[in-house]
Design brief:
alpha/beta; 44% helix
C-alpha cells in the first residue's frame, strides 16, 4: 500500500468543506458539538451515529454532489480547517471522554483549543456513504478503509492515540487502531502521541506515585 501523492501533496493548504483533510477545532468539539448533537454522559460514538447523519441529512455533499454530507462539512465551526492532528480511537469510547482527552491534550501541550483541529473518522468520513454501502450488502472493503485511514495518517502527519482505560486500553485490542499506530510509526516525519482523559491522567499519576 502507498498513499495517494495528490492527497499527501496538499499538506499546508486550506481545507474548506469537502476537503479530505478538513478537521474540527477542539474549541467547537467542547463548546458546540456536544450541544449540537445533545450528547449525554456515557453515550458512545455508536449511540450518536444516527444523530451525526441526521445533522447532515438535508445538505448536499461537497465531495460527490449527492444528498447527505459528513458532519465536518456542515458543522458551524468558525475555527474548522486543515487538520493539525488525527485522532486514533474506537467507537466504543464515550463521546464526552473523547472531548475530555482532546482538551487534556491541548492543555498538556499548551495549545489553544481553537488552534487544534482534529480529523476524527466518525465526523469527517461521510457516514451516509458508509451506511449506503452496508445496506447494499457491499460494505466498505478493507482496501477502501486502508486507503482512507492510511492517507490521513500520512497526510496529516501527527496522530494522537487515545488510551482508555489506561489500565486495560480498548485501543490496543482493535485492529484498525493498531494499523493506524503502525502506519504512523513507519511513516517518515509522522508523530505519534498518546493521550488520556483528565480522569485517566489523574489515575495514572496517582498510580505512579504509589
Amino acid at each position: 500500500w502507498r498513499p495517494s501523492t495528490s492527497l499527501v501533496g496538499s499538506m499546508g493548504a486550506p481545507a474548506p468543506p469537502g476537503d479530505p483533510f478538513r478537521g474540527l477545532s477542539v474549541q467547537w468539539l467542547r463548546d458546540g458539538f456536544l450541544k449540537d448533537l445533545a450528547v449525554e454522559d456515557g453515550e458512545r460514538v455508536y449511540d450518536i451515529e444516527p444523530r451525526i447523519r441526521e445533522r447532515g441529512a438535508v445538505a448536499r455533499c461537497p465531495r460527490d454532489g449527492r444528498p447527505g454530507a459528513a458532519y465536518v462539512d456542515v458543522a458551524e465551526d468558525p475555527w474548522a480547517g486543515r487538520a493539525t492532528i488525527m485522532l486514533s480511537y474506537t467507537w466504543g469510547y464515550a463521546v464526552t471522554d473523547i472531548v475530555s482527552a482532546l482538551s487534556h491534550y491541548c492543555g498538556s501541550s499548551r495549545m489553544a483549543f481553537d488552534d487544534v483541529r482534529v480529523w476524527i473518522c466518525c465526523l469527517c468520513v461521510n457516514q451516509f456513504r458508509v451506511k449506503e454501502a452496508q445496506v447494499s450488502g457491499q460494505g466498505v472493503s478493507f482496501e477502501e478503509f486502508q486507503r482512507t485511514f492510511g492517507e490521513r495518517v500520512v497526510g496529516i502527519g501527527h496522530i494522537v492515540a487515545m488510551l482508555s482505560p489506561w489500565r486495560d486500553a480498548i485501543y490496543l485490542k482493535r485492529v484498525w487502531c493498531l494499523f493506524e499506530a503502525w502506519t504512523a510509526t513507519n511513516t517518515e516525519n509522522c508523530t505519534l502521541e498518546f493521550v488520556l482523559t483528565d480522569q485517566e491522567a489523574d489515575d495514572f499519576r496517582s498510580s505512579l506515585c504509589g
